[in-house]
Design brief:
3 domains; about 400 residues; alpha+beta; 21 strands; globular; five-stranded mixed β-barrel; OB fold (Dihydrolipoamide Acetyltransferase, E2P); single chain; five-stranded mixed beta barrel
């Protein structure tokens, strides 16, 4: 998550150096520059943590700490977030690099572990990134939308996206930018350039573009998609040391192993909030019953209660959007706070669609009333992305 709060912030990926993939900085249009560099050159990318003399302590995106010695005569170039060409870069001195800046260094590994000699440093200032982030977040708020893909028309490039009970037609074109979430990672920086062909019914999608006046269609400038699984059920086992738990998913009746990593968000829903969302999942029927004292006592077995479905099936998905927003504001917990028998909802990534193991993005406990109201586990789901309204939060941390 970089930070846990920001792992799923869909920043358009033009605000930082995260878009540098196999070729150096392809997102900034400098693949050609990399091709001209010696084949033996290496690179490191991350955030500046300290500067002493001509040495930079770099916290890399791979989770390592590297001490970078900037060689005499090294080129130090500053790019503005969103820049697409090194020709737009400004040459600066080493003292122009500050703690918190994002940098990519090219050069050679040192003789000792964690040492690196840089012949070139390309950076983006933390303040510029923050400003770009704020602008993009505002634009996502104004021109963004998100939901579940129900249909894809490869011929026309049209996507049908469900927002609760509403269908929105998202029209893509040759100029639409596609990004695809990496199924075996919960870090959004691992998302890679994607294509329309990778998007399938059931995928979660966020798009930004020009909306029609009635909000039922959009011409998309950018589409970010991913294949996520929503699971719900009772925890059958927990292995805190191994960072895994198992549950029998209510929707598929399949036993799934959920891998919980340092980047997974774990939260507990307060009892009153759980009752409120349960009532909305049932279209109000559950709320009236619970208000008269019919809620199952804490700690009671939930399996039997999940066999009776409430009414108001269509209302749960819009409530799910509000639930995802509330989750973002709840205190963080750990796998040690979970117990066998807890009712949980999970949104997870899955590297292999046929696998019985997933990697948790979000684990939400305290949801027994919701699962009682929605025994099939499909009336209400969580979003994999932190959202504010329709806007994905942006950020490189």
């Amino acid at each position: 998550m970089l930070t846990k709060a920001g792992v799923f912030r869909t920043s358009v990926l033009s605000v930082g150096l995260l878009m540098f993939a196999a070729a150096e900085m392809p997102a900034f249009g400098v693949a050609k520059a990399q091709a001209q560099a010696p084949a033996a050159m290496g690179r490191e990318i991350g955030t500046v943590k300290a500067i002493t003399g001509n040495s930079i302590t770099l916290a890399t995106d791979a989770g390592q700490q590297v001490v970078v010695s900037v060689a005499a005569g090294a080129h130090i170039l500053q790019l503005a977030p969103g820049s697409t060409n090194l020709k737009d870069a400004q040459s600066i001195a080493l003292d122009g690099v500050s703690v918190g800046d994002r940098i990519l260094v090219t050069g050679k590994a040192g003789d000792s572990a964690g040492a690196f000699t840089a012949l070139r440093v390309i950076l983006m200032k933390s303040g510029d990134i923050a400003q770009k982030r704020a602008m993009e977040e505002a634009d996502w708020q104004r021109r963004g939308m998100g939901g579940i893909v129900s249909a894809v028309d490869p011929g026309t490039g049209a996507l049908t996206v469900l927002l609760g009970a509403k269908k929105v037609q998202v029209q893509t074109s040759g100029s639409t930018q596609f990004r695809r979430y990496a199924g075996d990672s919960v870090k959004f920086e691992d998302a890679v350039p994607g294509t329309l062909a990778q998007i399938h019914a059931g995928d979660q999608l966020r798009a930004r573009g020009t909306k029609s006046d009635d909000g039922l269609s959009m011409q998309a400038d950018e589409v970010v998609s991913g294949s996520f699984k929503n699971l719900s059920g009772l925890i059958a086992s927990i292995n805190p040391a191994g960072g895994t738990l198992t549950l029998k998913d209510l929707a598929t009746k399949r036993t799934m192993t959920v891998k919980v990593t340092a980047n997974s968000n774990i939260h507990a829903l307060p009892p009153q909030a759980a009752k409120m969302f349960a009532a909305r999942a049932q279209g109000g029927a559950a709320g009236r019953g619970q208000g008269q004292g019919s809620a199952r006592p804490a700690g009671a077995q939930a399996e039997g209660s999940m066999s009776e479905r409430g009414s108001g099936r269509g209302s749960g998905r819009s409530a799910g959007a509000d639930l995802s927003q509330m989750v973002n504001r709840l205190p963080e917990e750990t796998i040690a706070d979970l117990k066998v028998g807890d009712a949980i909802m999970v949104v997870a990534s899955q590297a292999d669609p046929g696998s019985a193991q997933v990697t948790a993005v979000t684990v939400l406990s305290g949801v027994e009333p919701i699962l009682q109201a929605s025994p099939g586990g499909t009336d209400m789901t969580l979003s994999p992305w932190n959202v504010g309204g329709d806007a994905p939060e942006t950020g490189v941390q």
